[in-house]
Amino acid sequence: MKPIPLFNLQAQHKPLRRRILQSVQRAVDGCQFILGEEVRLFEQEFAKALGVRHCVGVSSGSKALHLALEALGVGPGDEVITTACTFVATSQAVLSAGAKLVFADADPRTCNIDPREVEKKITRRTRAVIAVHLYGYPADLDSLREIAKRRGLALIEDCAQAHLTRYKGRIVGGIGDIGCFSFYPGKNLGACGDAGAVVTQSEQLAQKLRLLRNNGSDPVDKYRYLIRGYNSRLDNIQAGILRIKLRHLAKWTEKRRGHARLYRRLLKGFPLELPPEEKGGSVHSYHLFCVQADLRDALAKFLNENGVSTGVYYPIPLHLQPAYDFLGHRTGDFPNTERISQRVLALPIFPELKDAQIRYIAGKIREFYKA
Ligand SMILES: *Cc1c(COP(=O)(O)O)cnc(C)c1O
Question: Which one, of 331, 311, 310, 335, lies nearest residue 321 by Cα?
């Protein structure tokens, strides 16, 4: 068996290579690099794919989160609650907006923010909650929406790992006030560089986001600035590439789900916790297929020695990161997040993965636990 990577972008690009290069060529020849036609069309098409009214293309998923907070009016003096069990960009956005970062623990089974823990962290100054659909599995949005409504908070969905994830039948992104997407190359929908988008059902928020991403510039009087803004636009070349890939996203997502079903069948009865089951209309988009394992590091080493790449998302919980020393957290503050960081292991899952490769991986895992 040839080595099995964790992701395989080469395999994804092979059948699309000609179309991608033609699209780049058209952009170079057309010289419409900033907020061109491709950006406008991608925004339309992505909004339609998600069933949401507005999409605003931005320069990355990180920037999507930062601008979402500013569009909601969150700033200095405000507190924002998010999970300690996520990628650092989620929490970084809170600091970029100048607000106070407040962590809450994760649910041990779904690895997503626990609404009861959110409730405990709410103060007079809390303005917003950022829920992350981690690994592609939807957060408990009904409970979070109920809390947000009752306590007068905004709800942001970090959908960077959750393209076409569904919660109770609805595609995530447009369920909270604002949904934030990343098109980092390795995400389920990835550009050939950095890119991101913000989606919302609110015309007013969409307008503010369009100003924020473009230096606050008045759309009808370019050198008049209506608000303080940023240069955080989606690049026209990346938008053209994303339009090509978007047409394949639903099919790719189905392939990931098929792979997950096979993993589930083959890994039954092992000392592993498998990703949460899809139920009640919740659909996992399997950006990552994360198991929680006893002897995680030894298992990862064994798989690696047998040609199987794995990943740990994430090895150090955010509240214990050196960058956040100033928050004064200690080991034990968020026990579920800490336990997940010690046990989580991502197995290869990408659309082009073959059943034989999954069988090989499962066979090696069986071998490991037999020994
Ligand atoms: C990738 C990611 C981001 C940030 O996206 P970038 O496009 O890399 O800035 C934010 N949140 C989560 C959960 C992510 O996985």
Answer: 331
Best mutation site among 182, 286, 312 for ligand 1, i.e. most ligand atoms within 8 A of its Cβ? 182
Sequence-distant (≥ 6) Cβ neighbours of residue 158 within 8 angstroms = 61, 65, 82, 86, 90, 130, 131, 132, 133, 180
Atom 7 of ligand 1, residue of closest alpha carbon: 61
Q: Convert the pLDDT of each residue in 73-102 to its tens digit.
A: 999 999 999 999 999 999 999 999 999 999
Mean pLDDT for 281-297 is: 96
Q: Report yes or no: 158 and 60 within 8 Å, Cβ to Cβ.
A: no
Atom of ligand 1 nearest to the CA of 187: 1
Q: What is the pTM of this model?
A: 0.98
Mutational pocket test of ligand 1: of 135, 158, 344, the residue with most ligand atoms within 8 Å of the beta carbon? 158
Phi/psi of residue 363, each to 5°? -60, -40
Residues 176-235: tens digit of each pLDDT: 999 999 999 999 999 999 999 999 999 999 999 999 999 999 999 999 999 999 999 999
**Ligand 1 atom nearest to CA at 184:** 7
Ligand 1 atom with the smallest distance to the CA of 62 is 9
pLDDT tens-digit readout, 149-192: 999 999 999 999 999 999 999 999 999 999 999 999 999 999 99
